[in-house]
Design brief:
This protein is of the alpha/beta class. The chain has one domain: Flavodoxin domain (Rossmann fold). 47% of the residues lie in helices and 14% in strands. Strands 1, 2, 3, 4, 5 and 6 form a six-stranded parallel sheet that branches. α1 crosses α7 and α6 crosses α7. It is globular and about 55 Å long. It starts with a strand and ends with a helix. The structure holds flavin mononucleotide. Flavin mononucleotide (FMN) binds next to α1 and β4.
Length: 245
C-alpha cells in the first residue's frame, strides 16, 4: 500500500488544485497498472492559520511545535504519507508564505522529534525517504515556477526525502505552467478544455510527475527487482542494466 498526499499550497480553489487533481487521477491509474494498492489523502493551506517559526526551540525537546494553529493537522498528514505531491502557485517568484511557514516548522520539529535517538553530539536529519514531487504554476511564463519547484526539492533533500526524477521534455525538474496572464481561478481548466498548448503541457507534466512519483515509491518500498516499473518500463532500462544478481 502506498499512501499519497496531495498538498495544495494555494489559499484558493484554483489552478493549483486543478493540476493537483490531474496528478492524483494519474496516481490512481499508475497504481492500477503496477498492481499496487494506493490510498490518497489531500490537504490544503486554504483557510488555514500557519504562523511563521519563532525559534522558541520547544520542538527540540519532543518534536512538538508550540505554536497553536493549524500546523499540527497538516504535519500529521505529511508524516503518514509515502508520497507527497505539492501543487504550488508562484508567489513573488517562490513559494507562498503559508507553505514556507509550514516547511520551516516541519523541518525543525522533525529534527527535534528524533534528536534524542542520535545523541547530543550528532547533528543529523532523520531520513523518512518520502517521495516528493512538485507542480508549480504562475500567471506569467518564466516567472518563478522553476525556483518554486527547486525550493520544494531543497526541502525534500534537507528533510531526508527523495525528489521525483525529472523527465523530458515537459517536466525537467517538476511540472509547471502559466495561465497566459489570466488571473482567474479556473484559467488552466478553461484553457485545457479549449486545447490551448501550454495548459496541455501543464496537465501532461502534472500527470507524468505523478507516474514517476508512484514508480519511485514502489521501488523504495519493494526494491528494484520487485518493482514492475523498473522491470518492464523501458524508461528504466539504464537502471535495470546496472542491477546484477
Ligand atoms: C502575492 C502574489 C504573488 C504572485 N507572484 C507571482 C510571480 O512571482 N510569478 C507568477 O507567475 N505569478 C505570480 N502570482 C500569480 C499566481 O501565481 C497565479 O495567479 C496562479 O495561477 C494562482 O494559482 P491558484 O489559482 O492556484 O491560486 C502571484 C500572486 C499573488 C497573490
Amino acid at each position: 500500500m502506498i499512501r499519497v498526499l496531495g498538498f495544495c499550497a494555494s489559499p484558493r480553489v484554483g489552478n493549483s488544485l486543478f493540476l493537483l487533481n490531474q496528478a492524483l487521477e494519474s496516481v490512481k491509474a499508475r497504481a492500477a497498472e503496477l498492481g499496487e494498492e494506493v490510498e490518497i489523502d489531500t490537504c490544503t493551506i486554504r483557510a488555514k492559520k500557519l504562523a511563521g517559526c519563532v525559534m522558541c526551540q520547544g520542538c527540540m525537546q519532543d518534536g512538538i511545535c508550540r505554536i497553536k494553529d493549524d500546523f499540527g493537522e497538516l504535519q500529521e498528514k505529511w508524516l503518514k504519507a509515502d508520497v507527497i505531491i505539492y501543487s504550488v502557485p508562484v508567489y513573488h517568484m517562490g513559494v507562498p508564505a503559508q507553505l514556507k511557514a509550514f516547511l520551516d516548522r516541519l523541518g525543525n520539529s522533525s529534527f527535534g522529534r528524533y534528536k534524542k535517538i542520535f545523541g547530543e553530539d550528532m547533528v543529523t536529519t532523520p531520513r523518512p525517504m518520502k517521495v516528493i514531487g512538485c507542480i508549480s504554476q504562475g500567471i506569467h511564463s518564466n516567472s518563478g515556477q522553476e525556483n518554486t519547484i527547486l525550493q520544494i526539492i531543497n526541502s525534500a533533500l534537507i528533510s531526508g526525502c527523495v525528489p521525483v526524477v525529472g523527465d523530458m521534455w515537459e517536466s525537467y525538474v517538476g511540472a509547471g505552467g502559466w495561465t497566459l496572464n489570466d488571473e482567474s481561478r479556473n484559467a488552466l481548466e478553461k484553457q485545457f478544455a479549449a486545447g490551448e498548448e501550454s495548459a496541455r503541457v501543464a496537465v501532461v507534466s502534472s500527470r507524468s510527475l505523478a507516474v514517476r512519483a508512484m514508480d519511485l515509491a514502489v521501488l523504495l518500498r519493494n526494491g528494484a527487482k520487485n518493482s514492475p516499473a523498473v522491470m518492464k518500463d523501458p524508461k528504466y532500462i539504464a537502471f535495470k542494466e546496472t542491477i546484477k544478481d
